[in-house]
Structures are given as structure tokens and as C-alpha cells.
Amino acid sequence: MMDSIAQLLEKIEGTIIKDKATLESFRRDFISKKGHIARLFEAFKQFSIAEKKAIGPALNSLKNQAQKKFKNAASVLESDAVPSTAQPVVDVTLPAFGPIIGSLHPLTIVQNRIISIFQRMGFNLVEGPEIVGDWHNFSALNFPENHPARDMQDTFFLQRNPDQLLRTHTTSVQISTCVAQSPPIRSIAVGRVFRNEAISARSHCFFHQVDGMYIHTDVTFSDLKGTIYHFVESMFGQATKLRFRASYFPFTEPSAEVDMNCRLCQGKGCTVCKHSGWVEILGAGMIDPNVLTNCHIDPEQYSGFAFGMGIERIAMLRYQIDDLRLFSENHLAFLRQFTAC
Do 138 and 164 form a contact (C-beta atoms < 8 A)? Predict the structure, then answer.
């Protein structure tokens, strides 16, 4: 019995109680009614009176040691669980934490860069309303009334005034600029436009557009190509490949669509480029003489070029994003990837 008591005492002293789980395990093994000490007391009843006098003090001491260790450990764990009311020591000599700075929206970052590139080429930034009249959005841009070309853009008309509509392109701002100013004019208009289109990974019912124009004497298509090449190289790098395709726009003649090699698949083919390796980035052309006439500019004396591009498309290519909807769904995990620069 004395050997069992000594072994059990050594085990009690060697037990480390570090949390509530080990505390409960200690209670169950040594203090409970079915624990080791309780079994020793059951065996103690079988000894003679003389043996009990020799074993009793050691057995009681073992029980007291176990209970004392249990109470001390429980007290320590309970004090650790209660939060301290003492004020933490603050070292005022340490550097302060900087403020948490948010990030710019990726469209804002790309828009600012586009504006900066064109301003360095001498283009002035102009603005206009999002609700415009039919004349600014269509008629002045060589869209005859009831002409099929108007179906190229599904339009949101205002119910209270059918002549008013949500602009389908920022070219309407350029009409206002041409009416208000005299050549030479070199301007870009940036803003949100609206079209009644199905929302998908490639299109949306609203998006952001940059529209530019240059009107002066002896402006040629070569000037247009040089401007576009300079913009694309400044935005995407000198290794970017471009191609011009003949196209049709009512307000330019000749007209062209400009494609660049797809940066998402490196020209190998993906869903964004429709597996062609090329992505359309803008439409452009020489301003139709009828448009100049509508804005009271003499087409015999002046000529000009115009271009328009979607900021979302440029952002998709610059950041290699394959879904247009991410720009308007406000997912913080997506937006926090862009630095405020």
C-alpha cells in the first residue's frame, strides 16, 4: 500500500494542469469517487488496526495534496479567464499606427490614367449631362429620324418627355462642345452612358466611356492613327499589337474599329476575345462633314477625327479581368486588390 501511495503522489506532483480540460481530467483521476485515491481508501478498510495506524497518515496526506493542487490550479485558471481591469501600459515613444487608407475603384484608376495620357497630348477634359435631348445624342450625329442606324443602340427614353433620354455615348458631350467653341478643338469627354442591353460578362446596361475628337485644318486619318498608337503604347506598353478594321458609324466616314491582341490569353484564344486572339477596344474615324455642318463648323475649311472607347474594356485588359460585372457588384475582396494610386 505504501508503495502505491508513493507512486500516486509522484504522479500527482508530476501532472501539469494547463487548461480546464486537464483540470477536469485531474479531478476525475485522483479526486472523484471512482478515482485512484478513492480506490486506495476502499482497499484501506481491509487492513488491520495496526496497519491502519501506519498507512492512514500517508493516505490522508495524499488526499490533501491532491485536493490542494486541484484548488490552486482551478483558482489560477479562473483568474486568467477574468479580464484584467488594470490599464495597459502605453509606450508613447513608439511610432503611431497609420490611418487605414482605402483604395480607388479600378475604373477610377484606369479613367484617371486615360485622362492623363490624353491631356499630355493636348486634349482638354469636357463634361456634360447624362440626360440629353434627341438632337445631341442622335440627330446632330447624322442619325436621321427613323433611320435603322438608331437601332445600333438600345436607348432608355424618359417617359415624361420622349425627346429626352439617357445618353448612349459621351459623343453627345462633343456636340455641345462643338456648338459652344470654335476650332481648333481638341477634347475628351468622360462619363457614364446607358444602353438597354442584357447584363453578362461582356456587356452591361450602364458603363463608362471616353470620347475624344480633334478638329482643325488639314487633320488626316494618319493623325488619328498616331494618336491611337500613342495612347495604346502608353496604356499597355510598346509591345502591344493593333489592327484597324473598316467599320460603319453614322457620324464618321471613313470609320474603323481598332483591335488589340488579347492580354488575358496572350493571343491564344479565350471567352473574352471569342477565341480570336483579338479584342476590340475602340471605334474611330474621320468626322462626317454633316456633323460639322450641324455644329456650324465649315467642313470645307476644317476636318477632324473622333474616337470612343469603354473604360471597362480597357480595365479588363489592363488588369486581366474576365467578367465585366465585377466592376459594379461592390465585392470588397475584389476591390481591395487595387492600390490607391
Answer: no
Strand intervals (E) in the chain: 124-126, 131-133, 164-166, 185-194, 206-216, 242-249, 252-261, 278-287, 303-310
Does the pLDDT at position 83 exceed 80?
Answer: no
Q: How many residues does the chain have?
A: 341
Kindly state the cell numbers that stand for 310: 469603354
Grid coordinates given for 261: 491582341
- Tens-digit pLDDT profile for residues 227-244: 999 999 999 998 899 999
Cβ contacts of 149 within 8 Å, gap of 6 or more: 143, 250
Question: Of 212, 127, 125, whose CA–CA distance to 176 is shortest?
Answer: 127
Query: 78 — phi, psi (to 5°)?
Result: -70, -40
Write out pLDDT tens, residues 35-61.
888 888 788 778 888 887 888 888 788
- Top pLDDT among 173 and 36 is at 173
Tell me whether the omega of the peptide bond preceding residue 299 falls within 30 degrees of 0, making it cis.
Answer: no
Spatial distance between the Cα atoms of 325 and 318, rounded to a whole number of angstroms: 16
d(CA 256, CA 228): 12
CB 341 within 8 Å of CB 317:
no
Element (H, E) at 114: helix 106-120
Q: Is the peptide bond before 148 cis (omega within 30 degrees of 0)?
A: no
- Model's pTM, two decimal places? 0.67
pLDDT of 149 strictly over 90: no
Q: Which three cell numbers stand for residue 307?
A: 474616337
* Rounded Cα distance, 329 and 203, in Å: 14
Q: In angstroms, rounded to a whole number, what is the distance separating the alpha carbons of residues 5 and 136?
A: 102
CA dist 188 and 118 (Å) reads 8
List the one residue out of 324, 269, 332, 314 whose CA is nearest residue 113.
314
* Residue 59: half-sphere exposure toward Cβ, Cα within 13 Å: 20
SS3 of residue 207 by DSSP: strand
The residue written with cell numbers 452591361 in the block is 204
Predicted pLDDT of residue 81: 62
Instruction: Tally Cβ neighbours within 10 Å of residue 235.
Output: 17
